[in-house]
Design goal:
homohexamer; about 350 residues; alpha/beta; UDP-N-acetylmuramoyl-L-alanine:D-glutamate ligase; four-stranded mixed sheet; 10 helices; globular; Carb_kinase_PfkB-like (chains A, B, C, D, E, F); PfkB domain protein (chains A, B, C, D, E, F); kinase (chains A, B, C, D, E, F); kinase activity (chains A, B, C, D, E, F); PfkB_dom (chains A, B, C, D, E, F)
């Protein structure tokens, strides 16, 4: 049986100066499109999975351009509601060395922010679907968006569809209190929980027990403890935690851990020279969902997800444009970067 | 005595595909800044006039970039209020031949739209000023903006500052009824009224008497009649009307008329191959204000204003980047385009 | 009932210097994709018609990029065969004024040229289709391609699908003799024949009777005669002939005629300032098919088709990126090019 | 016998904003190379003539880049002296419609301006040469440059090499008095004199007799008279005069006349949509020399030269990148600009 | 009381190939503006300090573009003299890994090089100023420039304005002997002396005592000794020395030391991945002046200056476009480069 | 006596996305030219050696553009045969970090692939030549190409011209068996053999004796053994082996060894941050030939060759655009990357 994965959330117009130029140096912006759940859908489409992205976009040409970009990568867009006032925008200035990347959001009043549950018929959308994915950004867009999320989760459960969620806490969108309350209500429908090293603390106040999370192996124990607490509280099937070490805006170490309720599977760690870091977490989610819907063993699953997201850091734009073969080659050990002729 | 001209309104980020590409063909946008009153301020600064632009802009780097662009051309920006959520944006797709240019506005919720009268101290702003200019776009931004305009007009009058207004009716911002009512309240403070061939009808319901405005000389009579009605109703010192003939998106004819309450002064007509048509009307306003603050005779004034705006059509971006010498050369008859070595 | 149009042919990588630069001046090429039947499919998809393009493309990333570009505009690509050695390429240098545009073909040995009838299952492809379109370029690609065309035509007829063909004679691909022979064999399946002023003569040796086709009204009679001869010989339902007057590489006049076996319908003539002339004929085909599948009256049909292709001349790339509303606005008389705000 | 043409003068780095942007709008300049005599050499090399360009350039990489650009088009560069302080630069802002192109020279102190006769061994340079060309710009560079020109002319005459000169008066480089005096001294070595409609008056005070040069046929008589006076005074074999009508920076009419001492041969007149007008006169010189060294009849010669330079106006950069076949096609009457497939 | 800092020197047009392309590979140059003292002024303006830059620039549009670029960043330009022949130019090719960056100067005969003391009225310029800064490049431009520097220094001292100087020895502009003599004459007016590891030796023959300056801690002693000798000889209030370790064109280590006559304050050392190294020293000067006019403690001052210049290495162009908050964040320890959302 | 080096092989059009963009993300390709032997010719021309490149290219403008690019760098092109159907193309996607660069070849049916021995007159081509160079790619193009290579080798030997060959095994062009057989036949004419760490095994089945080539000094022994076996089998004068350690697509270590039949000379090892890795091996060949024709001592020769190719990794495009002075500076120890002012 084919897998069909539906993701739901916001896709934004991303405006970025070329290269390492600063915002106030430029008279050109790169114009691409991206957003947590859209990025996951593109990842999956690139892996050959039937992937559909659901959102609401204005009827004008810029809204259409976002749809066109999704279609280009093979993402199904037929249930995207059209209407509303504007598409969310984010401005991205790429950092280098000690200078961090900078994101300015201009996403308020976007079509998806002002959408209502009436815009989406989940029974129809989930026709034939086997997996549903969203991130913590979507319910953070407002009460309407949270309500739509909840409806989608319920519809998914009713149809026996697996649900994954990347906690993805964004402090500019809501407070920790609000996040904790809303997200807790959604977690009961979630089977696979993805988080980075801070999300569990920010959203649910879950900290690693009896250890100050600082360095080395201690860290591993801390992450295990966080994963276990998440599992214990919400009953997830899987908890995945990404482990980023930010050396500078140019160099990061990147790894992750998968917990299946019994064992903890740690991936290899990659030393990455960064081309574009945005979407790194989403590409991990895309890789993880791919490996889970294809029934990879836990160690293979986490290696695939981390290799996929390692590669994303070398690719411009939010979307991870890599194939299964490319991910498997890296996961299988070839990170030498030798020319493929 | 030096002249100092203050203009007030919105400046937006303008995002445009390169060349003649369509919105959904591109992954780069040209990023420049513009807006009716800002464009006038830049024109005047380029002519050596002390020009100041007043608005409200968000505190972030994109807001700063708009300010930097104004400063680059020598416009004073010190009274620009900082704060609010976002800078207005407009997307511009350049037309060619039979394909019209297309503008998508994304300006709602901008800092200036949500500004209040408390953001501006007009007594301080008008210190040393001799002229104030705004357009019909600004009061159309909302009741707050209209209230600020009114305060500015009153403050200007109280200080003996001349006031000019370009009617600039925008149907997406308000209805004709609302426009007519609000603008009428402002007109009593206005000395110089600028309009295109449709504004007087749209805003004030003023149509040319006993003639169907169609072609040739009849047109001239129609415009005279409209100017006279405007003058009679509001007591303007000058009424200027621009006369555009749109042959296609690539070719326009361009001329204007100035009425000083006694005589009607028609300019030469230019056949223009268009490079960038946006800001054409504003460059006329800038040229007219320049010639009036320098006490040009009416015929010379209208010739300067039309030559200035003719040149604007050959320049990329909203701003008219021409010097007094360049305008005078064209107004004086040299439109041969021979290389200036 | 929805219409579904299938087109079949070659899509090539188009490599073009930017602006008006010559081939040997540049170190960048614009890389887009296009080809007669693919261009028609994109036109139709932009008009909201279900459009599918069928071809064969190599399995590598450049072949995929061609598919992605089609998908971006909503064209169905699921029956595109993958395999073969290469994608056809054409180099395009844009002309200006007296300097003509220049095309260098590098299309030999392309995947579609070396495809066989085994690559396509027309019964499956035509599932639900109502219209099939190809051009004279496809059978000119070689005997295999001609055989596939013939199979497709037969399958279409068997299913009651309308068939249209743009004669599109290309002297670099085959001789007039070969063209005449092969095309005659295909014409019996064709309902709608599209040609420019030279195709009928080049392919079928059909010339206007008793007149030297030169200027003005005489021309009209000549075109009528050619259309009638085509109809009489092959029994087409419609014959459409495009009328291009090449003033220079920058300026063309553009019009067309439609013959329904009874009357001759001449469109308006447009004076076009050219942005990109390549794909002009295909956009006419796309417009004509759209209007015919939507049962436009003949005069309305030819006006729509000509307005659509007039607009194409203002758009970069082979594909015509315009909407029904835009075409109708021009066909309805608004060629003023005034800014659409 | 093969022809070998030597040209001598200055080649400059040309810095130009992209498109129609103004100098103070840009953060990129197009960097190409050009200069009157270098342009002629490139024209000839493109026509398959052995062409050599002689100048002096600094030893650094920018000097080398100028040489590389000449080599790219097949111009021999082996006698270019290396040394001196700098390469001359000119900034070019492209005009459009009523806005003229603008040139800012930054050429003082260039290597060629400060070169001396010791830098060039004309006996060696002229080995095998059959033609020598220079323009009035070169002696205008200073007394040293004028002295080198004189030495070159003498050496050419001594070897029986034909000499051509384009008067090319540049008022920023010298006064009319100085020009008249220096150029008169060089003219005795010149066989073919090229001038535009003003050069003869500026340099030699030669005006059309008994006529105010204004319009139409009168003009023709005026040009004839000027050519005859030039011939009578200096004994030229040929006098060629280019006839430019500047309608605007976007549109020019272009034609020329050739006088062989007996008859006056007027070319066709071309209405040109300008892509890049700089180098237009030089491309005429290149075309004329080509046709004369190939012994074209006078009418054919002037048609070739004018068609060549007509095409130059459609090509970016100083250099005329066209082939003999392209020029002949236009001279032969095909200015339709139809796509060459 | 507000601080106002005046800097004086040359601003040049900087022409650089894009990315890592070499000079003879390109047909585009990035065109920006920069120069030691201009760079310092921009740094300070970005920090909110009233900063004014004084120089002489030609009256033409390229001169104006340099001024516009300064204004864009808020630098006061009203005392820039206009006139002279040309703006200095430098060509910059960016290095990578083992290939060094290369600079070709074309700065002779620039307006500022040929300016005289009559061009500047320092009493007027220094109205309200609290600090004056220049570098060793300016007096190296020639005797006139040195005389202007001296006048400026004397005027500054007479008004109680602090004076800082970055020694900045440039061997292409003058000999060590000449530099030593002229600079010594200026040092008596200088309060704050900035130097890199070689300047003191090149200009004043001051070497570290009894040690071969090679590695590690020894180095620190050497720098201390040089700073002390400078202080002892010229009585500076502060001596700052930058410590660059060039690993390759892509990687440098960067640190500095400040000596206040009593103690030696060493900054943190940053390992920098270089985006653009030019202007690195000037950004240190800008940071140091900022921290001193704001009365930072010595350790905080040197940390701010080094963090500021560390960030400059990640920014394209001569100018350091960073805010006080960004510098403080890095100086305070956050060099992780994590995305700022 | 001057040296003249002739190289023979294929030059291809290289199409590469800008920066690190992937193939299916772009609508622009960088268009440059390159190929093993052409790259060597350009290296040598840049070093001042008379270098000629021989191939066959189609007569059209893209073929001409390849020639123009060679001429630009001073390579003699007069014996390039013109004709055939197409120029080979390769698509290059630049990798970064763990993502490898990817090459898609579209070189079949190229003019040089379909050339025959009749296209080249080696007696004439080798007039005055002292060195002939080819790579294993050329005979791999097909039997015709191998036959031309053989003819060239014989002609070279007959004239006492030294012959060098870079083994350069390409598995997509031929099998190991075929390669081994054809190459063995050519080796008898070869004096200098260049190989990387895998070529000897791939082509001739030569592996390092009694050691698993893994790390450190063992490696050195392995390479020595391979070199000795090559020498013993074919009697080469020199065997050079390049030693690349691929850490990632961004970072490589680079070194080489030269064996003169007596001693083994190992170069320094460079840690390279890669700008463009393609052509790295060819630049080694170019450096080696330069040092051998100039009779460098073996250690100096291998240091020059490795420094040359180290620099190539920092340069965009296939061609190594460096001077002798630049290579010598690095070979002499200055890899600090300090700005050269």
């Amino acid at each position: 049986m084919n897998n069909k994965v539906v993701t739901f959330g916001e896709i934004m117009l991303r405006l970025a100066p070329n290269g390492y130029l600063r915002f106030n140096q430029v008279d050109q912006f790169q114009a691409t499109y991206g957003g947590g759940e859209a990025n996951v859908a593109v990842s999956l489409a690139n892996y050959g999975v039937d992937a559909e992205f659901v959102t609401k976009l204005p009827a004008h040409e810029i809204g259409q351009a976002a749809i066109n970009d999704l279609r280009r990568y093979g993402v199904e867009t037929k249930h995207i509601a059209r209407g509303g006032e504007r598409i969310g925008i984010y401005f991205l200035e790429k950092g280098a060395s000690q200078r961090p990347s900078k994101v300015i959001y201009d996403r308020n009043h976007s079509a998806i922010m002002e959408a209502t549950t009436a815009d989406f018929n989940w029974d129809e959308i989930f026709e034939g679907a086997t997996w549903f994915h969203f991130t913590g950004i979507t319910p953070a867009l407002g009460d309407n968006a949270a309500a739509i999320c909840l409806e989608a989760c319920k519809a998914a459960k009713a149809k026996g569809i697996k649900v994954s969620c990347d906690l993805n806490y964004r402090k500019k969108l809501w407070t920790r209190e609000k996040a904790g309350q809303v997200m807790a209500g959604l977690m009961e429908y979630v089977d696979v929980c993805i988080a980075n090293e801070e999300d569990a603390a920010d959203v649910f106040g879950i900290h690693a027990a009896n250890t100050d999370v600082t360095k080395g192996e201690v860290n591993h124990d801390g992450y295990k403890d966080v994963a276990k607490q998440l599992k214990d509280r919400f009953g997830f099937e899987y908890v995945a935690i990404t482990l980023r070490e930010s050396i500078s805006a140019s160099d990061n170490n990147w790894a992750a851990m998968l917990y299946n309720g019994e064992d903890y599977f740690f991936s290899k760690k990659y030393a990455v020279r960064i081309v574009d870091r945005v979407g790194g977490g989403d590409s991990f989610g895309g890789g993880l969902i791919y490996s889970l819907v294809n029934n990879y063993e836990p160690q293979a699953a986490i290696e695939f997800a981390v290799a996929a997201s390692c590669l994303k850091h070398t690719i411009e734009g939010d979307f991870n444009r890599v194939s299964v073969a490319e991910v498997q080659s890296l996961a299988g050990g070839d990170g030498s970067g030798r020319v493929q002729r």
